[in-house]
Specification:
heterodimer; A: eight-stranded mixed beta sheet; six-stranded mixed beta sheet; globular; B: seven-stranded antiparallel beta sheet; 21 strands
Chain lengths: 467, 451
C-alpha cells in the first residue's frame, strides 16, 4: 500500500496564516511536506539493508521587520496548526494589518519530470544495478577488499502557502547512486568513490554506464595504494572538472549567499560591481537546469528558480538572495531560498553553481606547471564566510613535474582565503562538467551541484604528510 | 494514540503477514527544541520544533527489514508493517541480526509522547543578548558578533519488543558566540560553544568572553614554515580526531574490511601510555546512556589498555559474527537509520603531566587548538588526515607566536603510536551520537604545510 497524506486544505491554511499574522507581522508562510525516501545498500556482495522512510509535517514562518520566527511540527491537523499559529501570533508582534486573501492551490509546471519514479521501479532491478557495480569494481584488481554500493531515492511533495495569497504544490523526485570501493595491500587501505545523482527518476540509470563508474572508483582506490604521502608546501595546482567545482562552492559560493552577506558577515559584502576575481572567472548559480541535481521548479519559499550570473569576468554581479534577506540588501530575491525539510527555516543557498568554460586547453594548463599538483578527484570542504578561510580535500592527486603528470600522491588538502584564490585562478579550460554533493548549512542538508572546467591556481597551500 | 497501542496495531498486522511476535521491534524518538539568534542586541531568529518518528525493524524469513514514519495512526501502522516486510524481502543478508528480548528491564512510557519544554523564552533571550553585549564590551576591536544561538532540547528514546519496554530522556542546552574582530585589513573570527543540561546552568557571559579570547588570540597570526613539528593536540582537536576515526574501532567496519584493526585484538596498536575507554555513564560527560539502541544494558569498557587493543565495539549482530559478547554499542543515527555501532563516552585517559610541562617537552612545539574541514580532510578508511589548523608556536615552553594558514597532516594509526606525552587536562566535548573526550596529546612528529 502507499501512504496517502492529504495536505492541509486552502481554507485551513488561510485561517492559520491569518491567525499567525494577526499579531501585526509583515508576512506569514506555511510549508507542508510529505516525503518518502528510500535507500538500498549493498555490502559484502549482498543487499544488506533496504530502508523506506516517511516524513511529514509543517513549518510556520512569520516575519516581522528583520525578525523571523519559525515553528515546526510533525502534527498538522487543524487544531495542531492553530496551536502553532497562536504561538506565532504571540511571539511575533508588529504594527501591520494584513488580510490573507482566499487561497487556491495550483500545481507548478514540472520542468524536471521523472519517467520512472522510484515507487514504480522494481526492487529487483534496483538490486541488480548494485550487483553490477559490485562485480565491475571487483574485476579491476584482487586488491579490492570491499565494495559498498547504494541507491538513494526521494519523492518530496510540498505545499507552500503564504499571506500574499500564494499557494503552490510541487513534487520533487531525486535519485542517486553511490559506490565506495576499498583496496588494501594488507598494511594500508585506500578508497575510491563515485556518486552521480539527478532530479529525475530511475531512467537516469537506464542510460548510465554503472560498470564504468564502479571501475573508475576501483581504479582510484588501487592507484592510491601505490601513492606516496603528498608533499606539503605552496605550489601551482590544476583542479580537474566536475566535483573540482567544490573549490568555488567553498571558497566563494557560501560567501555570496545573502544569509552571510546581509549581516555583513561575508568578505564579499558591499562589493557588487567590483572586481573580486581574475578576469578568467565567470561564475553562475542556476536552479533551472533541466534534471540537474540542484534544480527545482520553485524554491522553498514558492518562488520560481532562476539563473543568476554571480561573477562576470571577475566582476561581482549578484548575490544569491533569500526572500527575507532581500529587504536588508535592498534587492530582489533570486529564487534561492532553500531548506532540507519542514524542520528548518529556509535561507539562501546554492543550487547548481559553476565556473563557466574558458579557452585554455588541458595541455596548456598541465604544460605550464613545472612543479605542482594535479587534482583529478576532489573531496568535500568547508569555509568560514566571515574570513574567507576555506579548506578542502584532494581524494586523487598526482605530482606534476616539468609539464607532465607523474606519480600519485595521497592525503592532500588545499587551504586558502576565498578573496585571494579567486584572483589566483589564472587558466580556465573548456571541459565544463558537474559533480553532485550534499551541502550542510543553516537550513539543513540540501542537494547541490558543483561544477567547473579544469582550472589552474597559480599557487595555493597544499597540505600533505611529507614535509 | 499511545506507543503501546501502536505497538499492538503493528503486531496485529505483522501477524497477518506471518511475522512472529518475537521478531520485531519498534524504535521511537522525539525531540523538542527551542533556538534563538540575536543580532545587534535584538532577537533576530527564533524557532521552536517538535518532531520525531517511529521505525520498525522486523525479521522476516531470516532477513532484516526496516521502515519508518512520523505518523502514529492505524493507516501508518499497516504501511509500516507491509513496507518493513517488503524491505526484508529485498535484502540478501542472512547473518544473525537478533531482536533483543531484554533482560526484564521496563520503563514508564506514560510521558514519552507528551513532550513538553519548560523554557522561559524571555529569560533565554535576555541571557543571549547579554552575552552578545559582553562580546563587544570586553574588547573594542570586536566590530560585530557574527552568530549567536542558544537552544534547549529534550529528547526521548523508546524501544519496544515483545520482551522489553525501555525509554529514557535527555536534556541539553547550548550557547554559542562568534565575534568578528577587524584589525586593519585583517578579519579574525573564531567561536566558543558551551553545553549544559539547562540554560540556567550556562554561563552565557563567560562563554562570550571565551569566544572573544578565542578570536583575538589569533591577531597577528601567520603560517609557520613548512616542515616537521612536534605537535600538541589540544583536547578539542584530539577529540575531533578521535571522533573522525572512532569508526575504526567498530566491529561493523572490521566486518566490512574497512578497518585495519580487524585482526588486531590483543596486539599493540598504540604507545604504552595510551588507554582508550568507553564509559556510557562517565560523570564528566553530559551524555548518559543506560541502554544501547538494541536495548542492551551498557557498561564501561577499556578499548585500548596501555597500547594494546583489548576489544572492538560490537552490537548483537557483529558480536555473533566475531563469536564474542556484545559490548552494548548498538547505535541508530536517528529513528530512520539502520542499526550500526558507535561508542558512548569515548575518551583517552588523562596522563599526569601538567600542560605547561607538556609544552616544554620539546624545544619547539606547535600547539594545535582549532581545526576545520574534518568531514573532508580525514579519511576513516585509510587513517590519513590533512587538515586546516590554527594554534600557537612554543619555544622551550614559552608561547612565541599565534599560527594560522597551515595544514597538519598524518595518519591516525601512526599517530596512536607516536603519542609521547599525555597531559592531565581531560575534557569531554559536545554530546551527539557519541561524546568524545581527550586531554592534550603530544605527538612526536607531524607534517605541517605553511609558508
Amino acid at each position: 500500500m502507499s501512504l496517502m497524506i492529504c495536505p492541509p486544505s486552502e481554507q485551513v491554511l488561510q485561517k492559520v496564516l491569518q491567525t499567525a499574522i494577526d499579531g501585526g507581522a509583515d508576512f506569514a508562510e506555511v510549508f507542508f511536506e510529505s516525503t518518502v525516501s528510500g535507500t538500498l545498500a549493498l555490502s559484502k556482495q549482498k543487499i544488506e539493508t533496504a530502508l523506506q522512510n516517511h516524513i511529514c509535517g509543517v513549518g510556520l514562518r512569520v516575519v516581522c521587520g528583520f525578525k523571523t520566527t519559525y515553528f515546526s511540527s510533525c502534527e498538522f491537523d487543524e487544531a495542531s496548526l492553530m496551536t502553532l499559529a497562536n504561538r506565532a501570533k504571540t511571539a511575533c508582534k508588529g504594527d501591520k494589518k494584513v488580510t490573507v486573501p482566499p487561497l487556491n492551490a495550483i500545481t507548478v509546471p514540472n520542468l524536471h519530470p521523472a519517467v520512472l519514479p522510484p515507487d514504480l521501479y522494481p526492487a529487483e532491478k534496483k538490486a541488480a544495478l548494485l550487483h553490477r557495480a559490485d562485480m565491475a569494481a571487483r574485476s579491476v584488481s584482487e586488491k579490492i577488499v570491499q565494495v559498498n554500493a547504494g541507491l538513494a531515492e526521494k519523492t518530496q511533495f510540498v505545499r507552500i502557502a503564504n499571506s500574499t495569497g500564494l499557494c503552490v504544490d510541487d513534487t520533487r523526485i531525486r535519485v542517486r547512486f553511490n559506490v565506495n570501493v576499498t583496496a588494501s595491500d594488507g598494511t594500508q587501505n585506500q578508497t575510491g568513490h563515485e556518486a552521480p545523482g539527478a532530479s529525475c527518476g530511475y531512467e537516469l540509470f537506464e542510460n548510465m554506464d554503472i560498470e564504468a563508474l564502479a571501475r573508475s572508483a576501483a581504479t582510484t582506490a588501487v592507484t592510491m595504494l601505490s601513492a606516496m604521502p603528498c608533499p606539503a608546501g605552496v605550489f601551482p595546482v590544476a583542479i580537474e572538472n566536475g566535483f573540482g567545482g567544490v573549490i568555488f562552492h567553498e571558497a566563494c559560493g557560501h560567501s555570496l549567499e545573502s544569509e552571510a552577506v546581509a549581516k555583513g558577515n561575508s568578505e564579499f559584502a558591499g562589493k557588487i560591481g567590483t572586481q573580486i576575481a581574475s578576469e578568467k572567472v565567470t561564475a553562475i548559480d542556476d536552479g533551472t537546469i533541466a534534471g540537474a541535481w540542484g534544480s527545482t521548479n520553485i524554491d522553498d519559499a514558492g518562488a520560481p528558480t532562476q539563473r543568476n550570473v554571480l561573477i562576470e569576468h571577475g566582476i561581482l554581479k549578484s548575490y544569491m538572495v533569500g526572500d527575507t534577506d532581500a529587504g536588508r540588501l535592498g534587492c530582489s530575491p533570486t529564487g534561492s531560498t532553500r531548506r532540507e525539510s519542514y524542520l528548518y527555516a529556509p535561507v539562501s543557498r546554492m543550487r547548481n553553481t559553476y565556473i563557466a568554460p574558458g579557452t585554455d586547453s588541458f595541455d596548456d594548463i598541465i604544460g605550464s606547471i613545472d612543479h605542482g599538483l594535479y587534482c583529478k578527484q576532489m573531496g568535500g570542504g568547508s569555509v568560514n564566510p566571515v574570513t574567507g578561510e576555506f579548506n578542502f580535500a584532494v581524494s586523487e592527486g598526482y605530482l606534476v613535474k616539468n609539464g607532465v603528470i607523474c606519480e600519485p600522491v595521497r592525503g592532500a588538502s588545499l587551504i586558502g582565503k576565498g578573496s585571494k584564490v579567486l584572483f589566483d585562478i589564472d587558466m580556465v579550460s573548456d571541459n565544463l562538467a558537474f559533480g553532485q554533493g550534499m551541502c550542510d548549512a543553516a537550513s539543513g542538508s540540501v542537494p547541490t551541484n558543483v561544477g567547473q572546467p579544469l582550472i589552474r591556481l597559480k599557487e595555493i597551500v597544499v597540505g600533505g604528510a611529507k614535509s | 494514540m499511545t506507543l503501546t497501542t501502536y505497538f499492538d496495531l503493528v503486531k496485529e498486522h505483522l501477524g497477518i503477514l506471518g511475522v512472529a511476535e518475537s521478531d520485531f521491534e519498534l524504535y521511537y524518538q522525539k525531540a523538542s527544541e527551542i533556538s534563538a539568534q540575536s543580532y545587534q542586541l535584538e532577537i533576530d531568529q527564533f524557532s521552536q520544533s517538535v518532531a520525531g518518528g517511529i521505525s520498525l525493524r522486523v525479521l522476516y524469513e531470516g532477513k532484516t527489514g526496516y521502515a519508518s514514519t512520523q505518523l502514529l495512526s492505524e493507516q501508518s501502522a499497516i504501511w509500516l508493517a507491509e513496507t518493513a516486510v517488503q524491505s526484508a524481502a529485498v535484502t540478501e543478508n542472512t547473518e544473525i541480526d537478533p531482536i533483543w528480548q531484554g533482560d526484564g528491564q521496563t520503563s514508564d512510557l506514560s510521558d514519552v509522547l507528551d513532550l513538553q519544554l519548560d523554557v522561559d523564552t524571555d529569560r533565554l533571550f535576555k541571557y543571549l543578548i547579554d552575552g552578545e553585549e559582553m562580546c563587544t564590551a570586553c574588547d573594542d576591536r570586536i566590530s560585530a558578533v557574527s552568530d549567536s544561538a542558544a537552544a534547549e532540547e529534550v529528547s526521548v528514546r523508546a524501544i519496544l519488543s515483545s520482551g522489553k519496554q525501555l525509554a529514557d530522556k535527555n536534556h541539553l542546552a547550548m550557547c554559542y558566540y562568534s565575534p568578528i574582530c577587524k584589525v586593519g585589513d585583517e578579519v579574525y573570527n573564531e567561536y566558543h560553544i558551551e553545553y549544559q543540561n539547562s540554560i540556567d546552568q550556562i554561563d552565557f557571559e563567560g562563554c562570550a568572553v571565551k569566544s572573544v579570547n578565542a578570536t583575538t588570540d589569533y591577531i597577528g597570526s601567520t603560517p609557520v614554515p613548512s616542515g616537521s613539528y612536534a605537535v600538541a593536540l589540544s583536547p578539542k582537536v584530539a577529540r575531533s580526531l578521535l571522533s573522525c576515526f572512532a569508526g575504526i574501532f567498530s566491529g561493523l567496519s572490521a566486518s566490512r574490511g574497512i578497518s585495519l584493526l580487524k585482526d588486531k585484538v590483543g596486539e599493540k596498536i598504540a604507545a604504552d601510555i595510551v588507554t582508550l575507554m568507553d564509559a556510557p555513564s562517565h560523570k564528566d560527560s553530559l551524555m548518559q546512556r543506560s541502554f544501547d539502541d538494541q536495548g542492551v544494558t551498557t557498561y564501561e569498557k577499556c578499548v585500548i589498555e596501555n597500547g594494546v587493543l583489548t576489544t572492538l565495539l560490537h552490537n548483537l549482530k557483529t558480536a555473533a559474527e566475531f563469536g564474542v559478547q556484545t559490548t552494548a554499542n548498538a547505535y541508530k543515527g536517528g529513528y530512520t537509520s539502520p542499526l550500526g555501532i558507535a561508542p558512548q563516552n569515548f575518551y583517552f585517559e588523562a596522563g599526569s603531566c601538567p600542560l605547561s610541562e607538556l609544552l616544554a617537552q620539546r624545544e619547539c612545539v606547535l600547539q594545535i587548538c582549532d581545526t576545520k574541514g574534518l568531514h573532508a580532510g580525514a579519511n576513516a578508511a585509510t587513517g590519513d588526515f590533512s587538515l586546516e589548523c590554527k594554534g600557537f608556536l612554543y619555544q622551550n615552553g614559552q608561547k612565541v607566536q599565534p599560527v594560522s594558514g597551515i595544514t597538519v597532516a598524518g595518519n591516525f594509526y601512526t599517530l596512536l603510536k607516536d603519542i609521547v606525552c599525555i597531559a592531565d587536562d581531560l575534557e569531554f566535548g559536545s554530546p551527539g551520537s557519541s561524546c568524545m573526550g581527550s586531554p592534550t596529546l603530544l605527538i612526536e612528529k607531524l607534517a605541517v604545510a605553511g609558508k
